[in-house]
Design a protein that fits this description.
heterodimer; A: 321 residues; mainly beta; 4-stranded antiparallel sheet; B: 101 residues; 3-stranded antiparallel sheet; 0% helix; 45% strand
Amino acid sequence: MAYGFEAKNDSGKVIINDTIENLHFIGKATRGSNNSNYGDFPGYGGSNDTLDGRVLHTYTITCTGTPVAFIKPADYARWHSIIKQSVSSTTWTFEVMISGTSTSNPPEIYCFVNADDVPSTSDTHGMIVYKSNGSTKTFDSRRQPLAITGGGTAAAPPSDPTNSSGLPGNSSGHSWNYSSNDHDFRSSNRYTAHSDSSANTSTAMFACSSLAQGVYKRQQHGHKASCRFSCFGWCCGGYQDHYSTAAWWVMYRQAFRLRSGNFDSGWTGYAAGYSFSSVAEDGGWFGGGGGSWSSGSMPYAAKTINLQSNAYILADSSRYD
Amino acid sequence: MSHGLSVFKSDGSLGFSTADVTWQTVAQFTVAANATVSNTYSEAAGMTVIAQRQLVNVPPSAQEDYAPNVVVSNNSQTITVSPQSGLSSSQCIIHVLAQDA
């Protein structure tokens, strides 16, 4: 460089210069409403009813620039992810998903923006670096600069989000109105681990976007044929068919967990449903009456999408408290 | 420290120093649904560049929400965001971060 400013760290890597902006801490987002649900299948009470559950917390922060948000878990055993980030004027809203149904121990969201968009401060101590235009800041020590502790590439979670292996799929040959789920839709054991020495369960926080999504469904078909009219022990009046379909589905979103020495990329159920339909053919003059009834619905086809790797960054939250 | 740079806060505590490691931010931009965008940042030449994707407006219980692909090329200077092959893509925030390689 012929002029300007450049600082290299102890590894000889540039960490401040006058061409690329550093990220600076602007505050923690404010937590608003929450919504807890799906600890089990709505409207169903049989076997394998239990799900992981999830809580959605909404956070907001007002700033110019686009914030990079870090999640600092309060309960490191739970899975976390930011599943939505939107802006209205200069107010940013984050929807943060956490596994489980307890609304206690919500995480904190630490927000960082580029140097030139940090809020003004009356602090007269520190160091500011400007670009060659003399007005655009690339570094301003009065707002705590981001220092990372680890990170890398987070692989996609396993393509099967469910603890029971394999696609649950469809099965037939069940008795009419059969409805007993045989698939474990929880995802607590389904994750890809990344060894990272800076991961801990005390002050570590992470920035990583949730991309992968999935819908898994189990469907069971039942049937019964009833004799419309019996003649001395054999069916002489034809058969009346009865059909039933029971279905369980869960919609998953990618979520992350910090463990000591590991960053995990996994899943948490976002929504779930149970549907049941039953149809009885009209039995005619001598048979029983026909009819159908059903409950619940599934929003879209079963599949897993966005199974892609994504960058993750770890930092120490205690530097910004 | 025997050499390097330390920047202190007004309360006298250490704020940042050459013992630290960081990612710098090259750019942030939002890509509209189904759009292809290619931006070039000459200042990122030769650096390690990552592009984080954050979906903006996910309606998870109503429709599938495909994230766009991101490709870093041209000696880390060019970021290309485009829909996955044969699929629509959702609106997405892109954070381009760089680290001295």
